[in-house]
Write a structure and sequence with these properties.
By secondary structure, this protein is mainly alpha-helical. The chain folds into 3 domains: 3-135, no CATH class; 144-195, no CATH class; 219-310, 434 Repressor (Amino-terminal Domain) (Orthogonal Bundle). Helices cover 60% and strands 3% of the residues. The chain contains 15 helices and 3 strands. The chain has helices at 3-27, 30-37, 42-48, 56-61, 65-79, 86-100, 122-142, 149-156, 160-166, 188-195, 219-232, 237-244, 248-258, 271-280, 286-310, and strands at 147-148, 178-180, 183-186. A 3-stranded antiparallel beta sheet has the order 1-3-2. The longest helix has 25 residues, at 3-27. The protein is flat. 30% of the residues are buried.
């Protein structure tokens, strides 16, 4: 885990622990706080609440959904990778924002103790706000939406001054901006062109599960996933066929598969074809995934054949 990733995770744990402490004021029940933190009993919570790291509360909190979501958001911002669809990302961003809004009280932080002292440091708050802005920015660019100077600065990890200097028309290749009243906006294509010049920027890639295979348990889920990944990669079936040097029969069998129809000729689309396809689409662990999902195709083929011949 990099230092930056550790800082992001630590900030998310700080937020979760602060929320747990505030919950006691609402419920007067330490069980509620321990449940929010995770797999800890009330006595452990009482013993370690407010204590510096490392302690069992922070260890338990690191396994929580919110902290896991924060790690995924950081990976998306830094590496451009999201394991599912863009729609899934938008749902996750909504969930993440709910946590971030706990930092944004009208008169200061919402998470305070009885002495009106903030329960989360400004540094942790800043890290989480910056992450939310950066993730929102990357998503907006992927949807072709215009963004603001602060948004682009957050995603690039630079100051707003750096972005404004990049937009200086006297530069050889200035960042193109537009005006909307008093606001300075940057169109998605202009933002992406500028970001792609930066050596640390990586383009967004959806349906890319790093570290774990997609969980595909039905023929229809497999078919839908392959179709979605191919379209996200910007490839046509004909382009796939040419790159993979498939026969016409294999092309026809795969076309049926994407339509959630079992191939009429199972021999034309064998396990090696599925593995080859998954590798070309850069799906994680293509050999093992093909091994576990090809039986779904074979079973669907067998069921369709039995229905045809025995009905």
């Amino acid at each position: 885990m990099t230092t930056e990733t550790e800082a992001t995770q630590s900030a998310a744990i700080d937020l979760l622990l602060a929320f747990a402490e505030v919950s006691i004021y609402f419920t007067d029940d330490i069980k509620a706080a321990s449940a929010i933190v995770g797999n800890v009993d009330p006595d452990t919570y009482r013993m370690y609440a407010g204590q510096p790291a490392p302690n069992p509360l922070r260890t338990a909190a690191s396994q929580s959904r919110f902290v896991g979501l924060t790690r995924r958001m950081a990976h998306y911002v830094n590496e451009g990778v999201w394991a599912d669809s863009h729609m899934d990302l938008l749902d996750a961003l909504t969930d993440f924002r709910i946590g971030i809004e706990l930092l944004n009280g009208k008169d200061g932080p919402c998470l305070i103790d009885c002495n009106e002292t903030s329960l989360i440091s400004e540094n942790s708050s800043s890290i989480l706000r910056q992450l939310h802005t950066a993730a929102t920015t990357r998503s907006a660019i992927d949807q072709g939406e215009s963004i603001t100077v602060p948004m682009l600065a957050a995603l690039a990890g630079v100051s707003e001054k750096t972005v404004r200097m990049a937009a200086n028309p006297n530069n050889e290749r200035p960042l193109i901006t537009t005006k909307d009243g008093a606001a300075t906006l940057i169109k998605a294509d202009a933002a992406l062109e500028w970001l792609n010049r930066r050596p640390d920027f990586k383009p967004s890639r959806y349906f890319t599960s790093e570290g774990s295979r997609p969980q595909l348990t039905s023929f229809w889920a497999l078919a839908a996933h392959l179709l979605a990944v191919r379209e996200e990669r910007g490839l046509s079936i004909e382009e796939l066929v040419k790159s993979l040097t498939w026969s016409t029969d294999t092309r026809d069998a795969y076309t049926q598969l994407e339509r959630s129809q079992p191939p009429r000729d199972l021999a034309a689309f064998q396990p090696r074809h599925l593995e080859q396809l998954m590798r070309h689409l850069d799906i994680v662990e293509p050999v093992e995934l093909a091994r576990t999902t090809y039986p779904l195709i074979a079973t669907a083929y067998g069921e369709a054949l039995a229905k045809e011949q025995l009905t």
